[in-house]
Amino acid sequence: MAKTVMIVDDEVDVISSVKQVLEYLDAEYNIVGANSAKECLKLLDNGHIPDVILLDIMMPEMNGWALYTILKDNASWKNIPIVFLTARIDRIAKGAGEFLGDDYITKPFEIKDLKKRIDNVLNEKIR
Q: Which of 30, 36, 66, 107 is the residue whose CA sits 20 to 30 A from 44?
C-alpha cells in the first residue's frame, strides 16, 4: 500500500535527496516536497493529505513550530503524524520536538534509520 510522505524543508537538496533515496528503498513510498510552510499549507488545502509530514524547524517566513500549530489546530490535518527533521540539536528544541511530534530526527541522518523511523510512525498510525 502506497505511503505518502510530505517533506517540508527550505533546503531543496534535502527534499531531493530524501525523495530519491526513500523511493529507491521502497517503491511504496510517494514523496511530496514543499520548500516552505506556505507551500505545505497550499498542498494540504488542495487535498494532498500525506500519511506523515517530515517537518524542518528552521525555515524563513514561517518556522516549523508555527506550522505545527496551524496543522494541529485544523480538524482535517490534526491527525497527520509529524516527524521533526532538523539541524536543531539543542536540548530545548529536542525536548519540545519529542514531546509535540511523533519523532525528532536531527540532521545529518542515516537514510535507513530515517526510513525505519518513518515506518514506525506509520505503523503506530495504523494501530
A: 107
Sign of CA dihedral 35, 119, 91, 100: positive
Looking at the structure of the chain, the number of domains it has is: 1
Percent of the chain clearing pLDDT 70 (strictly above):
91
Distance of CA 75 to the CA centre of its chain: 18
Tens of pLDDT, residue by residue over 61-120, are 999 999 999 999 999 999 999 999 888 666 766 766 666 789 888 888 898 999 999 999
Per-residue model confidence as pLDDT tens digits over 87-98: 866 676 676 666
User: CATH code at 25?
Assistant: 3.40.50.2300
Instruction: Report helix, strand or coil for 9.
Output: coil
List the domain range (segments joined by +) for residue 93.
3-126
DSSP assignment string, 55-115: E-S--SSS-HHHHHHHHHHSTTTTTS-EEEEES--SHHHHHHHHHHSSEEEESS--HHHHH
